[in-house]
C-alpha cells in the first residue's frame, strides 16, 4: 500500500498534550509524564499498517479464528538521547519489539553528524523498523541514522517524532522519500540555532532536566 510521506497525528488527545508540553513552565516530571502518555497514542498511529494474520483460539464459549500480528517482531530504533523518551512509552504498547540505539553528534568543524554508537537488532530486513526522535529539525542526523539502518538491511522504515520543521521534512523527502514521517505537528521553521519555532525547546533537556 502506498504511504503518505508526512502524516500529522491530529488526534485531539495528542494535540492537547502537545500544547501542554510546549509550555515553558511545565516541570521535568510533568514533561516526562506527558511524553509517556503521548507516545502511547503516537504508537497506535504509527503501527496502524502492521499486518495481521489469524490464529485459532478457544474462548470460554467456542473456538474462533482471531487476528494476531504477523511475522517478525518490530524493531524500534531510538536516536540518542531524546529518542529514549518516546521509546519508553512505545515499548509499553509493544513490549516484544526489538530495540536498537543510534548515537550521533555534530562535528563542530564540518557540522556533519558523526556516529558514536550503533547497536541495532539482527534481521532488520524482515522487520518493520520504527525510528524515534522527538524533534525533526534539520534532518541531518536522521538522514545519517537512516543511511546506516539501510546499510544494516532495514527496508520497511518509518520515522516517528513529536514536532517536525519543514526544513527537516524536505531534507528527508530528498534523501529518503521511501520513509514515511509521522509527527504530532509540523511547526513553522528553524531559528538560527537550529531550534524548531515555536517548538518546545530542547527536548532532551526538558525530559532529563539538564540545561
Ligand atoms: N532538538 C531539540 O531538542 N529541539 C529543537 O527545537 C530542535 C532540535
Automatic annotation (TrEMBL):
Catalytic reaction(s) noted: UMP + diphosphate = 5-phospho-alpha-D-ribose 1-diphosphate + uracil
Known cofactor(s): Mg(2+)
EC number: 2.4.2.9
Cofactor info, note text: Binds 1 Mg(2+) ion per subunit. The magnesium is bound as Mg-PRPP.
Residues annotated for uracil binding in this entry: 196, 201-203
GO cellular component: cytoplasm
Entry function: Catalyzes the conversion of uracil and 5-phospho-alpha-D-ribose 1-diphosphate (PRPP) to UMP and diphosphate.
Membership in a protein family: Belongs to the UPRTase family.
Official protein name in the record: Uracil phosphoribosyltransferase
Natural source organism: Paracoccus alcaliphilus
Amino acid at each position: 500500500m502506498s504511504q503518505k510521506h508526512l502524516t500529522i497525528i491530529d488526534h485531539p488527545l495528542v494535540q492537547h498534550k502537545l500544547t501542554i508540553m510546549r509550555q515553558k513552565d511545565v516541570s521535568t516530571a510533568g514533561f516526562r509524564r506527558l511524553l509517556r502518555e503521548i507516545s502511547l497514542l503516537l504508537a497506535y498511529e504509527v503501527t496502524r499498517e502492521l499486518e495481521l494474520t489469524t490464529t485459532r483460539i478457544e474462548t470460554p464459549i467456542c473456538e474462533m479464528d482471531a487476528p494476531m500480528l504477523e511475522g517478525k517482531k518490530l524493531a524500534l530504533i531510538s536516536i540518542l538521547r531524546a529518542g529514549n523518551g518516546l521509546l519508553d512509552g512505545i515499548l509499553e504498547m509493544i513490549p516484544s519489539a526489538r530495540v536498537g540505539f543510534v548515537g550521533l553528534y555534530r562535528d563542530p568543524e564540518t557540522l556533519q553528524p558523526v556516529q558514536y554508537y550503533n547497536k541495532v537488532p539482527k534481521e532488520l530486513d524482515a522487520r518493520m523498523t520504527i525510528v524515534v526522535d522527538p524533534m525533526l529539525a534539520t534532518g541531518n542526523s536522521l538522514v545519517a541514522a537512516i543511511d546506516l539502518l539501510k546499510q544494516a538491511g532495514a527496508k520497511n522504515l518509518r520515522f516517528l517524532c513529536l514536532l517536525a520543521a519543514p526544513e527537516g521534512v524536505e531534507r528527508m523527502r530528498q534523501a529518503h522519500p521511501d520513509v514515511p514521517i509521522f509527527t504530532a505537528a509540523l511547526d513553522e521553521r528553524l531559528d538560527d540555532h537550529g531550534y524548531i519555532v515555536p517548538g518546545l525547546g530542547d527536548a532532551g533537556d526538558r525530559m532529563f532536566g539538564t540545561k
